[in-house]
Design brief:
Elements: H1 9-21, H2 23-30, H3 33-44, H4 47-58, H5 61-87, H6 90-102, H7 112-129, H8 138-148, H9 150-160, H10 164-178
Pfam family, one: TipAS
InterPro entries: TipAS_dom
Protein name: TipAS antibiotic-recognition domain-containing protein
Length: about 180
């Protein structure tokens, strides 16, 4: 696919239009129009990351823009749901699960104990992102990131010990390869 297919100009145009047409939602979701503008500015410096994500998860910039517009329209409700999940202990539980997962990197990523932690992490994530357009390969891309994305690998390995990212990637990979619907 050509660079043109993943040109981010249309994405930023959509964000600008969304800001004008849905100012109340922007304020409710981001706290202020200025905070939204700051968020957009941060992404303007990361066009290659944005284009890569669009390609991996959506196949085209057009599909990505459509999904992100839908997500923005749902943003106030999604943020409220995230807040309730946090208040209900979901985010704290996620931190606890991460600590439990990383507590022993020598375990078999497919062992029952690790897989139970992964199952609960997946449930929390799916509750948090329920109703959002996440792309066709969200979990596959997450696994790939744990196994191959240098920045993520370095960050996790620094926080939890050498091999943490690979262990996590293999644990999620095993889970999705063996998940019963």
């Amino acid at each position: 696919m050509s660079f043109k297919e993943f040109d981010t100009e249309e994405y930023f145009k959509m964000l600008s239009e969304f800001r004008k047409e849905h100012e109340d939602s922007v304020i409710k979701s981001f706290g202020s129009v200025e905070a939204f503008d700051e968020w957009v500015s941060k992404w303007k410096g990361k066009e290659s990351i944005l284009a890569d994500s669009a390609k991996k998860n959506y196949g085209s910039m057009e599909e990505f823009i459509d999904a992100m517009k839908k997500n923005l329209e749902k943003m106030p409700d999604l943020m409220e749901k995230g807040k309730k999940l946090g208040e209900g202990g979901g985010l704290e539980r996620s931190k606890e699960l991460t600590q439990a997962l990383m507590s022993d990197l020598t375990r078999d990523p497919g062992c029952e104990e690790v897989q139970e932690i992964i199952r609960e992490c997946v449930e929390i994530t799916e509750k948090l992102y329920e109703g959002m357009e996440m792309g066709n390969n969200f979990w596959d891309n997450m696994v790939d990131s744990y196994l191959h994305e240098k920045v993520l690998i370095e960050s996790l390995d620094k926080m939890y010990g050498k091999g943490a990212s690979e262990f996590t990637g293999k644990a999620y990979q095993y889970y999705f390869q063996n998940r019963k619907a």
